[in-house]
Design a protein that fits this description.
Helix content is 33%, strand content 18%. By secondary structure, the chain is an alpha/beta fold. It has an eight-stranded mixed beta sheet with strand order 7-8-9-3-10-11-13-12, sandwiched between helices. Strands 2-1-4 form a three-stranded antiparallel beta sheet. A two-stranded antiparallel ribbon has the order 5-6. Helix 4 packs across helix 5, helix 4 runs parallel beside helix 7 and helix 7 runs parallel beside helix 8. The longest helix has 18 residues. It starts with a strand and ends with a helix. The relative contact order is 0.14.
Length: 314
């Protein structure tokens, strides 16, 4: 659980979520902005911005509990065995250092390399992620690069130490579809080479369908559906997941206007009683306002938190 202070007490931005990712596999985490995807990822990295805090629960990495690790221990782990591609590279990269220096810094800190060797390795990492003329680009500053190239630099930095777990937070947002496809292909190729687990966060089900082995759908800080990717796209159970899928454009389908889910994700401070999605849901029944549905298995390997779906309705 991740909580932030509010006027009426602590507000739970993420509450009661649980999942696991195996080595060499990709977990897709999907949902609209405000669903808690990024906050959950920052909690894994122990980077929840104050005054927010991890208010309960357990984070187990490679068989060891890391929730209570001290500052030195978590800093040694972060960037080395667990790495993160942050959502906006232009703000995540330091504007006053070259991109080569920023990648080299990771290798000096976690691998104990001499600065010269780390600089050479930084050039190799840039080449690994498909940046042309990497020796030249290593001397560039972030503002000298395009959005797609900055994203590749972030990937190179995150993969510098061959992490066991890579958290990719909206790595294709604001990129054109061609660059999006290149980034997805790159991550899958590097995953095959290194064998790392990937937690891929996105609001785009189209991108998720290309990269994920399993998908978790989040809404208002909680998981509302979880299933193998192929099963989720073939037979979604939760009305929120169905709504998201209906908004995806389809080749050959000519519509005057794309469908949209009415309303917006409620603030964690004003979460409605019962099912948090009920005010936007075409399936809603009176019981949805009385109690919150729990995540339960409704088909082999397929879980959803919905009274109507659990009863076989709609």
């Amino acid at each position: 659980m991740v909580a932030f202070p509010g006027e009426a007490g602590e507000v739970r931005a993420v509450d009661g979520i649980s999942y696991a990712i195996e080595a060499g596999r990709t977990l897709g985490v999907v949902g609209e902005s405000g669903c808690g995807k990024t906050v959950a990822a920052l909690a894994l990295m122990r980077l929840v911005p104050p005054p927010g805090r991890i208010a309960g629960g357990s984070i187990v990495f490679d068989g060891a509990e890391i929730t209570g690790l001290g500052t030195d221990a978590i800093e040694a782990l972060r960037g080395d065995r667990i790495a993160m591609i942050f959502q906006e590279p232009m703000t995540a990269l330091n504007p006053v250092f070259t991109v080569g220096d920023q990648i080299a810094e990771v290798l000096v800190a976690h691998r104990g390399m001499a600065p010269g060797e780390a600089a050479e390795q930084a050039v190799e990492r840039l080449a690994q992620v498909g940046i042309a003329a990497p020796a030249q680009r290593a001397n560039d500053y972030p503002h000298n690069l395009s959005g797609g190239m900055r994203q590749r630099v972030m990937i190179a930095m995150a993969l510098a130490c061959s992490p066991t777990l890579l958290i990719a937070d909206e790595p294709t947002t604001a990129l054109d579809v061609t660059v999006q496809a290149q980034i997805v292909e790159l991550l899958l190729r590097l995953q095959d080479e290194v064998g790392m687990a990937i937690q891929f966060i996105s609001h785009s089900l189209g991108v998720i369908s290309e990269i994920a082995d399993e998908v978790v759908v989040m809404y208002a800080g909680r998981i509302v559906e979880r299933a193998p990717a192929a099963e989720l796209f073939r037979a979604p159970l939760h009305p929120y997941t169905r709504g998201l899928l209906e908004t995806v454009p389809r080749i050959g389908a000519r519509l005057a206007r794309l469908p949209a889910i009415p309303g917006a994700v409620p603030s964690p401070a004003s979460r409605p009683r019962g099912c948090a999605f009920r005010n936007r849901c075409a399936w809603a029944e009176p019981r949805c306002a009385e109690a919150e549905p729990v995540l339960e298995t409704l088909a082999p390997g397929h879980q959803a938190a919905c009274f109507v779906a659990a009863g076989g309705g709609r």
